[in-house]
Amino acid sequence: MDPLSALRDFTIRGELDKIVRVNDEFRFGTEYSFPCSAETAYRSKQGNLYNLETLVFYIQNHHRRHTEYMHNSLSLRIPAVTFTDRKPLLDYLTGKVSTSDSIVWNPPKFPDEFRPDPSGFDPDSTKPKATKREEERQRLESQQRKDGLVAKSRLMGAEERGLGLSYGDEMMGFDSKPKMHLKGSKLGEGVPIILVPSAFQTLITIYNVKEFLEDGVFVPTDVKVKQMKGARPECVTVQKKFSRDRDRVVTAYEVRDKPSALKPEDWDRVVAVFVLGKEWQFKDWPFKDHVEIFNKIIGFFMRFEDDSVESAKIVKQWNVKIISISKNKRHQDRAAALEVWDRLEEFVRGRSHS
Description:
Blueprint: H1 3-12, E1 19-22, E2 25-28, E3 32-35, E4 39-43, E5 49-51, H2 52-61, H3 66-76, H4 83-93, H5 134-160, E6 163-167, E7 172-178, E8 193-195, H6 209-215, H7 221-227, E9 236-239, E10 252-256, E11 270-274, H8 290-296, E12 298-304, E13 320-325, H9 333-352
């Protein structure tokens, strides 16, 4: 069976969870195995054949808004399905239609060696190496970046006019209902924002937040500053790359350390803050008190487990989660990072449905 037919079959059967990536191949349960870079028979309206990695990532994320999907694809360097191809491709993969003009039935042949051995033997030595199509990939990524910029500009334009962005079956349109900023606790449109202190006396900063949240490893800020040779990032994108339940859904977050640079509408996207434990951190924030802040934004306070109780005296009066890590046992950092992710995702789900 070819990759496209296998993916459609597993989608219709509701068994997408059985498609597992192992190194550079996708394994469809114990039935089939294909290289991630294998071309499928589905041709984009731009003329190229989508590879299997692109289609698997799309079908696993088709429920997301196009702007969010594009952002995640760019972050993971996976060529994306274009906006115009999304609906017809989804209709075909889910079985809503039986065929499509975009399908070119002359896909490459995949020998039986690609089928996983039920005994557990991995016949790597018998598999032909996946052909690298760097030129094609670069072209796709270039188009993807272009699509992402167009979608982002439309989203930003809509927000500036106080409008929400919605997607129809064939084209993008604007919701005529005005957005209300800071009137409630519902999550705003766009990539969620996490705020961190700009002061170096806190454990988590703009310099080391990526290693902690993505890799589950705490690297002291001064070490990261030396590695980066003092270059201060304005914004860092982080994603959850590990979990206890092997959840493969990826959500991107923007991390910033300059609240004063946020526009009024940006505050609707702020979902979390790492607190310093000082009152002045919240100066000029658009909230009346700590109760309102930590009702709309989840707070985290990072500390070393052997720090004095006094270090968290003020924080204990606030509705924030205290996360303790060891000064020396770096293998314990992962559990602390997972606790942050678990709390954050639960909070975001609550805001999204409020």
